[in-house]
Amino acid sequence: MKAELYIQAENDLGEGPLWDFKNNNLLWVDIEKKLLCISDIRKKDLLEVEFNSRLSAVALTTTANLYLLASETGIHLYDLKNRESKEIANPEKDIENNRFNDGKCDLAGRFWIGSMDMDVKSGAGSLYCLEGFNAPQRKLEHLTISNGMDWSLDKKQMYFIDTSDYEVTCFDYNVETGSICNPRRVITVPKKYGAPDGMCIDAEGMLWIAHWAGGNVSRWNPKDGKLLETVRVPAPHVTSCCFGGENLDILFITTARKGLNPQQLKDYPQSGGIFLVKPGVKGVKTNLFQIDFNRKANGSD
Ligand code: CA
């Protein structure tokens, strides 16, 4: 299979694709250009909202027009209509050279967000979990490039990638408490495929992994660690993927121009674009950040 260009966004570091099913939009960020990008896939348009710090992840919330954004300056609730943001947490404000990286909401509406050192210092990153407006909890430390994550369909496992490990780690996950334990390697990524970056799960419980410096997205069975499928992407630096579209049957893929030499940019001129493929399997619905988490946890919503 081969992915085709959806839109040439000319992203320096396109990342964090997210299907906004409430508005039929694809959202993503350009970390280096500090952009939130929004495209109505029926119109194939592109709205770019510029910020003054590097955004790395966006999430939907339980409130219309309100998004969760992770940036160098913390985690914010962002009102797209009024273009106003409000900081709700900043667990690494004292770690100067760190920034956030991939983040995603879990099945209970918690937001999980990893961090990394901007010069990729080994072990400088962590993984945090945010429940509503409570103080973020640090779930993992000594990470290098905290990256893709997702949760199994039976809500019992969390899958996680630290890119520097070239593997997918599986944790036992408790959806009620948000605890993770018992880490074990379930997928080993051969270096020739490229570094594992962003990841999402499909409706059959298989994992799709974007490969930085690999020019592909791959599909794996986390039960036996086997590679099932490869989608070629005409851009070497593939960063992340998510399912979207009205029927959740389109895999959207983000890419980067960052780190490519002039010859690579010439050979792969679509680098920095958003790509798509219809792989014949559907994704799962995007989880929302539960703003009123405690109320939700008490079962009143
Ligand atoms: Ca990433």
**CATH class placement:** Mainly Beta
- The beta-strand count equals 25
H/I helix tally? 2
CATH architecture: 6 Propeller
**Strand numbers in spatial order across the main sheet:** 9-8-7-6-25
What percent of the residues sit in helical stretches (DSSP H or I)? under 10%
The CATH topology corresponds to Neuraminidase
The structural domain count equals 1
Oligomer: single chain
In round numbers, the mean pLDDT is 96
How would you describe this protein?
The protein is mainly beta. The protein has a single domain (4-297), classed as TolB, C-terminal domain (Neuraminidase, 6 Propeller). The chain is 4% helix and 51% strand. The protein has 2 helices and 25 strands. It has helices at 262-267, 293-297, and strands at residues 4-7, 14-20, 25-30, 35-40, 47-50, 55-61, 66-71, 74-79, 84-89, 98-105, 111-117, 125-130, 137-143, 146-151, 157-162, 167-173, 180-188, 195-201, 207-212, 216-221, 226-232, 238-244, 250-255, 274-277, 288-289. A 5-stranded mixed sheet has the order 9-8-7-6-25, with no helix packed on it. A hairpin with a 2-residue loop joins β7 (66-71) and β8. The longest helix is centred in the last third of the chain and has 6 residues, at 262-267. The termini are far apart.
